[in-house]
Description:
This protein is an all-alpha fold. It has helices spanning about 1-10, 15-30, 40-50, 55-70, 75-80, 80-90, 95-115, 120, 125-135, 140-150, 160-170, 180-185, 195-210. Helix 3 runs antiparallel to helix 10 (about 140-150).
Amino acid sequence: MASQRVERRCGGKGVGSVLTGFYERLYSAFGPQNWWPGDGRFEVMVGAILTQNTAWTNVEKAIANLKGAGVLTPLGLKRVSMERLAELIRPAGYFNIKAKRLKAFVGYLFREHKGRIDGLSKKDTESLRRALLDIHGIGPETADSILLYALERPVFVIDAYTKRVLVRHGLVSERAGYDELRGLFMDNLPPDVGLFNEYHALFVRVGKEYCKTKPICKGCPLEEFL
DNA sequence: GACCAGGCACATC
DNA sequence: GATGTGCATGGT
């Protein structure tokens, strides 16, 4: 279990205080990241699907295309043809796959909630998460991104950078899975939307700048924790 | 011209 | 249940 590993490594300081220490160090180094860079809840949800394994700059082009075509609404995405949709989101990569995923998402939205985002807000977080995971093309990270950044639910988003940084610091095993990492944060930090929002974004920031496959630890804000 | 990016589903063992 | 592979564009 991840938290036991953290306890061992941190000499009984407590998992929560270690994770809080990471956060404070990152926040003072980088400041607020102002995520999610999107205009409205639906756009954030679409962005969460489009950014799967893809650089955000490419997603921005795809979103601009969808906006330009006037289809960046539940009804717009429902009505546009698969072929046209794929063409519009081409810059985001995996465009055929992601066109199907967007269709599956709005399909769910209309089937269960009459195409209205408000419908989602009525559900409790756990059943909403299960519903999202049942949609083809929405996995744990995308579901949690939608929950946190679009619907403001206090769930922690894990991504490749988060794991890389934690592994680098010996806090989790290379073999740790998504739910284990997610639980590490959610079991040891207060369920605060603002905190989870910034923390995930800060992991991406420090990961991009210092913890790619070949880490650059000199000058990293987390260097003192190594 | 490699290598990588804010994953996921599916096949195979 | 774990491990491997296809999906694709655009920036460094």
